[in-house]
Predict the structure.
Amino acid sequence: MKDCVIEITHVKKSFGSNCVLADISLNLQKGENLVILGKSGSGKSVLIKCLVGLIPIDEGNIRVFNQDLSALNAHELNALRRKIGFLFQSAALYDSMTVRENLEFPLRISKTINNTERDALVTEALKNVGLETVIDKLPSELSGGMRKRVGLARTLILKPELILYDEPTTGLDPITAGEISELILEIQKKYNTSSVIITHDVECARKVANRIIIIKDGAPVATGTFAQLSESEDAWIRSFFNKN
Amino acid sequence: MATTNSAASEKKEVAVIVPVESRNPYTLFIRPILHEVAMLARFCALFFKEVFAPPYELKELIRQCFLIGYKSFPLVAITGFIMGLVLTIQSRPTLAQFGAESWLPAMVAVSIIREIGPVITALIFAGKAGSGIGAELASMKVTEQIDAMEVSGINPFKYLVVTRIIASTFMLPLLVIASDAVSLYGAYIGVNLKGDVSFQLFFLKVFEKLSFSDLFPAVIKTFFFGFMVALISCYKGYNSNKGTVGVGESANASVVLASLSIFILDMIAVQLTSLIT
């Protein structure tokens, strides 16, 4: 029996009268790549932000690494967040910092790391994403794909046990999107991480998913492997996979 | 077709009905202002809670002092020089009517040190540093950079807001002192455009009439100006939430509200100073 990394029970979230998450329950096992598929506006990004406490939930319960998010104080929440990597849709690199400074930024909390170790960690993280040469560049000098890779390198630098990917391939050409998907798989194998991947890119889902959950109007409508869901009897789910 | 028309007319009816509550002046104007003031007070309270708690972001504080203080100096110096020069040129004819041209250095100096220097420099500072802070933080918010800091386990409020407010609070008084000095030099040039007063005589006349009570309250109030400029700018930027439109709105609101707050604080400071002295 594998360990449960994330356990979401009857989570609801509304913004005013707009109900974004209707009633979501799901879990993520250790070492698993869980893809959450859904149309734009179906509540995927809100859900992933709820998982790290960026957006508070209205009802239900979220447990990450067996810790109830709502019961944690700010200090405990920060400690938990250090075990979680988050790749933002826009990569969210700090504009005023170079790639090196971006990668060093999450390490500032750790007082035990000296300069040599810091340099080694930065180099290793950049090597993992194949971008050692851009270390002294500013984010504005990088392409969209490179920014995503650097964002991923920054996510990896704290060696997280769980990585949350928010639309990792959005806005990228098919080749770069494919490379990012490969990278997600490599990272899972290399570091034995568990991942939640939010996407509406079916090709990415096909490559990386161990299990897929499809969300519609803030609630899960189907779960299964890529092969199971693409052969679903439900026409809407099949249409998602471009099959009539 | 008939159904569609009926639905359209129903929509029109709904559009013209304005709830009584939304026409109430309290709901329209006063409540949003009170809400904004309450949120600003809460933001300010959070600053005082975070400012004394470790870790202290000294490196970022020094960087902000450089960006906010040092980089604002050229603009503040040019403005100060022109201010001193123009004030002297404009005041001379009036003083000449009363045969009191010899009072020109002292009069200009008291005006600059007590009031014009701190207020004009603070307004220029609000325009440059305030709008910069508002736009930068709003842009970081829109592009999820603040969220990225938060999920890294780093307190973005401490790193971004606390450092900027402290830097602004301590840099503005220094800028005002520098601006005052340059203004007096501008005034010296202004005096000499239509006269011949030596550098020593000019400053002798200036310091004859200036006292500690002119300088001290004027400098003290600039700490509050600097604090308020950064507090409002950080508040507006940090709470921006309307995409790229919000970035522009935050920069704009930062300058407008910070400038307004400078005048309000100045009015309070002048009243307090006159009460004390």
About this structure: Chain B touches chain A through 15 residues (CB under 8 Å). Confidence is low (pLDDT under 50) at residues 1-12 of chain B. The two ends of chain B are 80 Å apart (CA to CA). The first helix of chain B runs from residue 2 to 16.
